[in-house]
Amino acid sequence: MSAHPLPSRRKALQVLAGAPLLPLGSGAMASLLSGCGGGDDDPSYVSAAFTSMPAPTLANAAAMATTTVDSTLQVKFSDQTTRSYTLGYQPFFITGDLVPDGKGGTIVAGGYYDIHNQPIMDTTGSTPRQFFSDCPDGMSLLTVPNAKVDGVKGKPVFAVVQFEYTTRNLKGDSMYGMLPSPIAVLTLDQDPNTGKLSLVKYHNVDTSGVKGLWITCGASLSPWGTHLSSEEYEPDAFDQGALGQPLATLKGFSQNLFGDPAKANPYDYGHLPEVTVNPDGTGSIQKHYCLGRISHELIQVMPDNRTVLMGDDATNGALFMFVADKEKDLSAGTLYAAKYTSVLNATTSAAISWINLGHASSAEVKALVDGGIKASDIMESLTTDPGDASYTKIVLNKKTLWVKVKPGQEKAAAFLETHRYAALKGASTAFTKMEGTTVNVKDKKAYSAISAIKDSMVSGKSGNVPALNVNFPAAINAGGVLEHTMTGGQKDSAGAAIHSDWVPTSSQFIAPLLGEDLTTPDALGNTANADKISMPDNLKFSEKMRTLFIGEDSGMHVNNFLWAYNVDTKQLSRVLSTPSGAESTGLQAVDEINGWTYIMSNFQHPGDWESPLHDVVKPVLDPLIRANYKDRYGAAVGYLTATPTQPKLHW
Q: Please, are residues 642 and 27 in contact by the beta-carbon 8 Å criterion?
């Protein structure tokens, strides 16, 4: 946390009084959060709480068709005074905009590039144009020592932004997974007086050295200041529909990236990319092959700089952990998968045992891939029972398989066929869409978003294996948030020491953060209670505000929301509403940068209509969203803002 002294209440007011009422950095309240005390007579910061905004309705259709923030932040001081801030939203750009490239020219925000860094063109419409994404996702706001970028008048701050996919081409055909995901470094000019962030430069990171990126979803900032990306839904090298994407999608991806549908190797995708930002606002990327080839979503590195907790956005997915050999270096370490030794459901706390899947370096695993290893070299995976006891029966993506590792191929199986190997070794491959992961350092708790509690998590349903001990009596399609208790001194399932003080030992669902399915849709078409979370996805925790932020990717809410949950007061507040049909992404809670606090937030695919969910609102909202977001091809990258409200103090 920042070591800056907390200004006196009156000094803080003097600073804020001169700030414009139009978009400030959400750091307008930051100087109040950034320290522990000022002078002897100065009241200190005690707590922060968000008021909850109402869900928008068709009475204000415009609010449903854009990002809407109608909430406030209440900051409390030690002398019982409070300070109130009205929140808003400020985008840096809408994808498809022409933004400054830092070289005197412009570049397409969210634009796609091939292996030669040439624009990938969409020629399916009447006028060809460069493909650009409508799906910005993971984002990391950060600083770099000795940064210097032309055009910055205040202080240089950087944001790394990745783009998960593009929904459709100009013809309207699906493009999911068919394009190499772009990732960009934004140079932002931070106004030292207001905290406002202004885009100065957009740099597209060259990913050709890692053979392009595959479906980059959530992201996190490492403790050492790098952007930890993701590659979700790894291509199924066996092409058996057992998790991941079919090889037909990989061929389309390969054609657009390499100009050759056969060139992309499935084993080059499904790993963990890491982006390092340079002082000049450029960036470089490496891909770690040793954290398991799973449906990487949003990982979290613990304060020891070595332990990594990873969700797995899949049906019959698992909770994974990686312990690096060295601090601040993810290039080698040991991979673990969780096995629940008691039953987990909505009301129980379940104990965890960790299965050691193996140790490897990224270089070792990449050498196997570069050497041409194929799925059939690693293991056998059959879709019918061979009647042979040497095979192990497993379930992945609700499909039953019989698997057996080839002699001497355990390391390849652990790191390239991680799902199959974890299931074979007895891990609890029982979750449905375990997505974002974050950490509450003070309480030594971690949180995982379970987007939907169904199928493999529900007793008697398809994909459920009772022995894996994740057994709900009934589905909660709206999902929930899982809390993990962490400690040290643990041993793995074979009795070997786990060299980490941040090992989850039990999990339980947080009751106020379970969604509520509706038996019949409400008047707008919501199929989950609009006053509770539904299908949580992005998670980030603010240590200073003691608040867990939750972004939705719901097929059950007509508008998706960003929520704030105070872990001490148990108060849940709706902070932001995305355009109807859009998903809340890009979440990051930044406690302090140069004395300012930020809450970063994007959205993706506005107007992605689902039936019957949007049948009531689509006729009204579709033309508004098309007008706001480039005929539904654009989406926003930005952050929350905060403006002081009147009266300034409540005595």
A: yes
For residue 500, give the DSSP letter. -
CA nearest to 641, candidates 17, 15, 27, 20: 27
Residue among 464, 393, 473 at smallest CA distance from 428: 464
Q: Tell me the β-bridge partners of 451.
A: none
Residue with token string 């409508």: 134
By residue count, the chain amounts to 651
| Exposed/middle/buried for residue 132 (C-beta within 10 Å: 0-12, 13-18, 19+) | buried
Phi, psi of 466 (to 5 degrees): -55, -35
What's 555-622 look like in SS3? CCCCCCEEEEEECCCCCEEEEEECCCCCEEEEEEEEEEECCEEEEEEEEECCCCCCCCCCCCCHHHHH
Rg (C-alpha) for the chain, rounded Å, is 24
Q: What three-state secondary structure class fits 58?
A: helix
E-strand spans in 183-236? 183-190, 197-204, 220-221, 227-228
Nearest Cα to Cα of residue 52 among 566, 640, 564, 530: 564
Q: What is the per-residue pLDDT across 240-261, written as a single tens digit (0 to 9) for each?
A: 999 899 999 999 999 999 999 9
The answer to whether residues 614 and 591 touch, using CB atoms and an 8 Å cutoff, is: no
Kindly state the tokens that stand for 649. Answer: 């103090």
pLDDT tens, residue by residue, 457-467: 999 999 999 99
Q: How far apart are CA 465 and CA 161, in angstroms?
A: 38
